[in-house]
Amino acid sequence: MQQPVIATFYDHILDISKQEGCSVGEALQEAKKLGVAALEVSCFNTAGRAEELSHELASAGLGVTTMPAFFSFESDGEVENRAKGIFEDAKAIGAKTLLVIPGFIPEGEDPEECTRRRIERTKRLSELADREGLALTMEDFDNESSPIATSRGMLRFMDAVPGLSACFDTGNFYFAGEDALEAYERLRGRIGHVHLKDRALGTDFGTEQRRTTSGGPMNPSPVGAGVIPMRELLDRIRAGGYRGAYTIEHYGAGPMLECLKRSVEWLVQRL
């Protein structure tokens, strides 16, 4: 059986470049040496430089898994206007899937009405993406103003939007106080992408400068070195039939290169 693709974020490559004092090209090569075969490249990364970035990745021999795409969905026209540029950038870098972040609920606004509005506009985005040959996925986004911070929030969107799959982020349910194993069972059979993210209580690997909704510590960690039940989650994800890429994530980590090395080694041993 072919080994799954191991990926990480282009943002992490930029962190490696800064922390290690090397060029972005050299950081890309370091990641490739570790076993990274593809990157997750956001709409912020591609803004104004999609073609240049595409050549950069091609020169390094790295592919693209998904493209995180941030939307506000505050007006009907925003869907079409925002989607057009994102679709163009996704095609330029070779992304076949958009990880859609549908926006956040502003303070003082009715959460239910905001959520309904975002669901309807995600449906419209799905229609537009389908015409362009692009798929949509959605993760448990770790923000208290997000309507998709929990598995139930994600399911509400997926039940309403045809073709929308779950991006299962192993570490983000921890933010909302939800058990990741229970969340997996709710989302079983609907997972189209995976983020491997662990969480540390201490700051040995850097600090994210954020806390859980209950006020607990939430810091970066190499995969398998934190408090998330990564081994059991990976076993269940694989047993459930998932054969897609695994994107290693640890925003705020330092040193990023060492964390990535440890994460890749942990994952390779278990694939």
From TrEMBL:
All copies of domain Xylose isomerase-like TIM barrel, residue ranges: 28-267
Pfam families (UniProt xref): AP_endonuc_2
Gene3D superfamilies, per database record: Divalent-metal-dependent TIM barrel enzymes
GO molecular function: isomerase activity
Region annotated Disordered, chain positions: 205-225
Keywords: Isomerase
Stated name of the protein: Sugar phosphate isomerase/epimerase
Organism: Acutalibacter muris
